[in-house]
Amino acid sequence: MDMFFIGFRDPLFSIIVFFAIIFIVTFFSYWWGRYKQGQDSKHLDKFLQQFRALPSKDELKVLISSGELSQKSWLLLANSYYKNGEYEKSIEIYNEILNIEKNSDTKEIMFLLGKTYFKAGFLERSKQIFLEILKREPRTPEVLHYLLLVYEYMRDYRSALEVLEPLDELKEDIALDSAYLHALEILNNNQLGEEQKSKKLLAIHKDSGALTYMVFEYLFRVNHEVAWHNLDTSKAKLLAEVLWKCDAKALNLDIISQNSFLRELYTARGDYELAQQSEIFEFDMLIGVEKRVDATLSFEYICDKCKSSSPFAFHRCSYCHAIDSAHVEWSLSRDYSRSFSEENNSFQ
Ligand SMILES: [Zn+2]
């Protein structure tokens, strides 16, 4: 017993007890902090989870009909889903809003739904919606323009051309649409031979003064002599990729030598020596370098109206739907086909 009291009064014992208390307090405070952090993170995850997924169809029905959120808020939500490419969610919201009776904006919401179906690739449903709107209000140019697009995407060019009539009556400018749809109809007509197609396409090109790439891409593919003969060399830049990829045997030296852009292009490609230099940086580089260098041109197409870009040529912009709005830009790139054939030759 005495031993215990001696130990208890020992200053060393007090120090040990003091540090033990500090250790216990620190340990619990650390453990409590970790526990609290875990709980907060779980709560936050649970809270955010409800925004990641759209409510089920039934929940959506209850939410929209309860009127807790205004119709404008639902439309904004549907629009943000549309912009993010989540068309399914956008479609569900529009459909549920349309199910509410006494909706004053039915036509507008049907139009938004039709547009979303179109963007999502449900062409038949989108067509039905646009036809339904036009049945009630036939003089709606926005809807007619979209119906024309739907028919075009469905390759029903006859019906698309019929839509131009009411648009013309509404004083809409249909000249380019008409030329473009007629050209598409000709290109997709299996009854016509290549010669007939070429003649008809050239007539459309001359009448409209447009669709240069669309018409000449076809002509250079099927009959390069007709293509060279009818080419307006002042528009050669638009056709840079077609001309760059034109077979060496199909070149027309008489025409090429009369146009500075063509002279520089084919000197850069290595077919002729018709230019010493070029104001176009990429051509100048290719003219100046050793011909064995593995460099070529790669092409990109930019829409003049909405500035969207694509590595492939397009006649109608898939974003803003403008026709004949693309211009081509080029850059230097490695010529993989040349490197590949040289590697193969070295193995032989
Ligand atoms: Zn565009």
Structural description of this entry:
The protein has about 350 residues and is mainly α. Among the domains are: about 180-230, no CATH class; about 295-348, no CATH class. It contains 18 helices and three strands. It has helices at about 1-10, 10-50, 55-65, 70-85, 85-100, 105-120, 125-135, 140-155, 155-170, 175-185, 195-210, 210-220, 225-230, 240-245, 255, 260-270, 280-290, 335-345; strands spanning about 295-305, 310, 325-335. It has a three-stranded antiparallel beta sheet with strand order 2-1-3. The chain is flat and about 115 Å long. The mean pLDDT is about 90. It binds zinc ion (ZN). The site of zinc ion has 9 residues, from loops.
Q: Characterize the main sheet.
A: 3 strands, antiparallel
Query: Mean pLDDT, rounded to whole units?
Result: 88
Given as residue ranges, the uncertain stretches (5+ residues, pLDDT < 50) are none
**Distinct ligand kinds:** zinc ion
Proportion in β-strands: 5-15%
Radius of gyration, in Å, reads 34 Å
Which terms would index this structure?
65% helix; 3-stranded antiparallel beta sheet; binds zinc ion; 3 strands; 348 residues; flat; mainly alpha
